[in-house]
């Protein structure tokens, strides 16, 4: 069970860094705004996206958050990464960077799977 916790916290920590810390620190930079414009989205979309990313990352990293809210955060990030992949592909075509959102999605899925393994273990122990 200790290895499950380690894997969960590493994956979840990486998601927190990519989706919570980075957007909070960089979303208002000119480079981030240009990236949003390049994909064809309006400027306000980048701001809204950064707010929801930070909130979702906090939901995942705080242990006391109810399970249902964590599920919504996992779902939101899944859509975010899939649509990021599609947007980059549609605008820039296939390249190495096109697949980066899918790599982060894989890390998110590791976090999700191990979150549920830990929850199942808690249920067994309390029974």
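Q: What amino acid sequence fits the structure above?
A:
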């Amino acid at each position: 069970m200790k290895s499950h916790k380690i894997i969960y916290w590493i994956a979840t920590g990486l998601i927190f860094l990519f989706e919570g810390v980075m957007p909070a620190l960089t979303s208002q930079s000119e480079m981030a705004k240009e990236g949003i414009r390049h994909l064809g989205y309006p400027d306000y979309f980048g701001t809204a996206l950064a707010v929801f990313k930070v909130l979702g990352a906090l939901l995942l990293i705080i242990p006391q958050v109810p399970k249902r809210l964590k599920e919504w955060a996992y779902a939101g990030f899944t859509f975010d990464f899939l649509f990021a992949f599609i947007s980059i592909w549609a605008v820039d075509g296939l390249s190495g960077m096109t697949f980066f959102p899918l790599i982060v999605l894989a890390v998110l899925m590791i976090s999700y799977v191990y979150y549920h393994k830990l929850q199942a273990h808690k249920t067994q122990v309390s029974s």
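Q: And what stands out in the fold?
A: The mean pLDDT is 94.
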